[in-house]
Amino acid sequence: MKKAICLLSGGLDSATCLFVARAEKYETVALSIEYGQRHHRELTAARVLTKELRVRHYFAALSMPWGGSALLDGHIALPQNREEEKIPAEIPATYVPGRNSIFLSMAMSCAEAQKAEAIFFGANAIDYSGYPDCRPVYLEAFAGAMLRGTKAGTEGERVEIKTPLLRLSKKDIILLGLKLKVPYEKTWSCYKGESKPCGVCDACLLRAKGFHEAGVPDPLFAAVPNSFSL
């Protein structure tokens, strides 16, 4: 059976990506990365997902003591209540310098070691927070670098970076996930690690917009009482 490494944060997009890989008949291996982020709610969600699916799950840890992001430094305010049209147009304080390059490099290392044919990555260039390392031009360039800078690539055993959600709206991602029976009540998107989603950060706003446009309630709210909804 073909094998894939799935970068899994525990959020809505990465969970959907994991289920897409399984639907495409890959033997899936999840990789989650602790990089000094504000909270571990997403990582806890990732652990719950893979435990129920009985998927092999690697956890890697690294330190980014230089900060530079609201997701790393509690002294930097999280953007709140941004207008919808500004979310993809402005690079927000939640951008983590170089994060996706680091994550994809670690996933490529894992893929080489595990002899996997593919990496599944839940990048999205439609309903997203404006991060430059989620854009097609970046992903194409990174894939080219990895082709030339890895043993697998130089020996003709290319590891494909698959981004099945790249050109889907959040609505379409959610509809796809519901079709694949993704348990969205067990995912976490909010940038804050509190007892319930804050409802005002970019991640909450994009998630709420997606479920609203899909015409279905977010099951997370049933799992987390007194949560907001759009």
What can you tell me about this protein's structure?
The mean pLDDT is 91. This protein has a single domain, classed as HUPs (Rossmann fold), CATH 3.40.50.620. The longest helix has 16 residues. It is built from eight helices and five strands; from the N terminus they run βαβαβαβααβααα. Helix 1 links the parallel strand 1 and strand 2. Helix 1 packs across helix 6 and helix 6 crosses helix 7. It is an alpha/beta fold. A five-stranded parallel β-sheet has the order 3-2-1-4-5, with helices on both faces.
Radius of gyration: 17 Å
Report the CATH superfamily. Answer: HUPs
Share of residues in strands? 5-15%
Could you say which overall geometry the principal axes of the C-alpha atoms support?
globular
